[in-house]
Amino acid sequence: MSQFTNKLLNQARDFLYKFTKGSTLINLLIAYTLIALPFFVYHEWHLPWHYITLLSLAALICGSILLFGTLYAIREYWANPYHPLIEIVAALTFIFALWLSEVFYFRAGKVFFFILSFVIILIRVLRMDFYVKISLATILLVGNGLLSFRALQTVEILSSYVLFKNKFKFEEVNLNSWTKSETENSYWNEELKMGFTIPEDFYFFKPEDLNLEQKTGAGQIAGLIASSDTDANRYPFIRMFYFPSYVSFEINQAASEVSSYLNMQISKQEIEDLQEISSAENLLPNLGSKFWTFYDSLRPRYAKSGFILIENANHDKILLHITENLEKGQAHEPGIESILKSVRFSENEAPEPNPEDPK
Fold first, then answer.
1. Which segments cross the bilayer (predicted)?
2. What residues contact 170, with CB distance under 8 A and at least 6 apart?
């Protein structure tokens, strides 16, 4: 058995040597493929198989090109240290990768970057050859990894958006024409025949202000009400999706779509421990509702997500997808409750007074 195994391994080595012709670069690319491809497939496992195949191959090709360029630059710099062009390209690539990965959005990320930059500049000025070479190789490899992963993330977001978007086909309308009252945070959309009032610590984003990830869901995004003016994904928030009257969209379909969206987040390891809860909604007239609790892995806490399906005077459906912190003994957070009570289907209807308003 041992002789057979050794013979098999020797044949594999011979084949690999003939295939790569002894090239270290090709061997590294093969090793990268064997390591990266299973990761890409696992990362996209929540999508249909044809999406997984296309995304994984695209990410592998993109990553291989970046790795080839990175290894080539490292080899050239190793032979010709202190080459200014290679250093400039490496620095710009690293900074771009950090920016694209939103590292600079956080104070700790900025501190990390300035400390690292100071150390690298110091050893560059002191001309410590070995450490200079190691530093350049490190920032190139880290930049390569961040760019590859960010590219995969971007394509994945686009795929998820298209996947939900294609489930219900209808002609989209302009839902950016929201009007705001001059005296209150009261909004009205003539196309939707719907309006609402938001508390002072909430903000409204039109569809044109949202990115693809925030727009992902069944139906046409009509807007997003958030508790932050810089981070539309911070709890609590409400996303609104529009379905025209000629499209069949009932409560069971709404439950299926929102459940699919939450299960996709589980597959991406963003949330876990998803549990359905019974929650009859009585703050506004509706066709039905359903909610789930979950543990948010990205923001360590228990939260709640679900939907309320409402209908306007034209019999168009509007899906209110709500995500909020889990409050014991309360159906909703105070801000969300205030917004839901203020929903109206007539422009002349007086907005619900805001209980937080001192007037």
1. 25-43, 49-73, 85-105, 111-127, 134-152
2. 220, 243, 244, 246, 247
E strands, the chain, are 178-180, 186-189, 194-197, 203-205, 220-226, 237-243, 271-277, 288-296, 301-311, 317-325
Q: Give the pair of three-digit tokens for residue 74.
A: 């490292």
For 353, the 3-state DSSP assignment is: coil
Q: In the sheet where 203-205 sits, what is the strand order?
A: 203-205, 220-226, 237-243, 317-325, 301-311, 288-296, 271-277
The first and second tokens of residue 345, run together, are 């289907």
CA separation for the pair 200, 357 (Å, rounded): 8
d(CA 199, CA 338): 7
Cβ(338)–Cβ(356) below 8 Å = yes
Report the distance separating Cα 204 and Cα 195, nearest Å: 12
Please name each of the domains of the chain with its CATH number: 2-165 (no CATH), 178-342 (3.40.1000)
| One-letter identity of residue 43 | H
Residue range 70-121, pLDDT digits in tens: 888 888 888 888 888 999 999 999 999 999 888 888 888 889 899 999 999 9
Strand-by-strand arrangement of the 178-180 sheet: 178-180, 186-189, 194-197
What's this model's pTM, rounded to 2 decimal places?
0.74
Residues 6+ apart with CB under 8 A from 150: 97, 100, 101
* CA 154 from centre of chain: 8
What confidence tens digit (pLDDT) does each residue in 283-321 have? 888 999 999 999 988 778 889 999 999 999 999 999 999
